[in-house]
């Protein structure tokens, strides 16, 4: 994530915004009581490449549950499986922030070339 996730967790838990030094660490097992379910420090080899996936959950005292699925494609089989799970456990809010990965990491032609077509 780009830090906005940690900003939200810290603000909800502490009423404060993220400090710069807190945003430097990536993939930690826990941040302000969230739980790393998959990815990050649980993997033998961390990556931020095409294979990157991370799943985190935080349960708040007020009953709110926040789940983060860090993905590297806006849509693929992995994302489809996440969406299918929404039927059993529907979220109130879904944020998808994968467009730049899709445009720049997977396409052989530039976004401008595709736009001109």
Tell me briefly what this model is.
The chain is α+β, with helices and mostly antiparallel strands.
Q: Explain this structure to me?
A:
The protein is α+β, with helices and mostly antiparallel strands and 117 residues long. It has helices at 4-14, 20-24, 77-85, 99-105, 111-116; strands at 35-38, 54-59, 65-70. 32% of the residues lie in helices and 14% in strands. A 3-stranded antiparallel beta sheet has the order 1-2-3, with no helix packed on it. The model has no long low-confidence stretch (mean pLDDT 77).
Give the amount of beta strand, in percent: 5-15%
Write down the overall geometry.
globular
Going across the biggest sheet, name each strand in turn. Answer: 1-2-3
Distance between the termini: 32 Å
DSSP strand count: 3
What is the CA-atom radius of gyration, in angstroms?
16 Å
Derived from helix and strand composition plus strand pairing, the structural class reads: alpha+beta
Question: Can you give the helix content as a percent range?
Answer: 25-40%
Sheet with the most strands? 3 strands, antiparallel
- Unreliable spans are none
Mean of all residue-level pLDDT scores: 77
What count of helical segments does DSSP give? Answer: 5
Defining key terms:
117 residues, alpha+beta, 5 helices
């Amino acid at each position: 994530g780009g830090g906005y996730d940690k900003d939200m967790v810290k603000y909800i838990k502490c009423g404060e915004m993220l400090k710069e030094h807190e945003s430097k660490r990536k993939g930690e097992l826990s941040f302000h009581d969230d739980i790393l379910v998959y990815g990050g420090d649980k993997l033998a080899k961390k990556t931020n490449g095409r294979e990157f996936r991370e799943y985190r959950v935080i349960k708040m005292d007020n009953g709110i549950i926040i789940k983060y699925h860090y993905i590297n494609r806006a849509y693929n089989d992995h994302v489809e499986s996440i969406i299918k799970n929404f039927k059993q456990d529907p979220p109130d809010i879904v944020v998808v922030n994968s467009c730049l990965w899709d445009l720049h990491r997977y396409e052989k032609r530039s976004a401008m070339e595709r736009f001109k077509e």
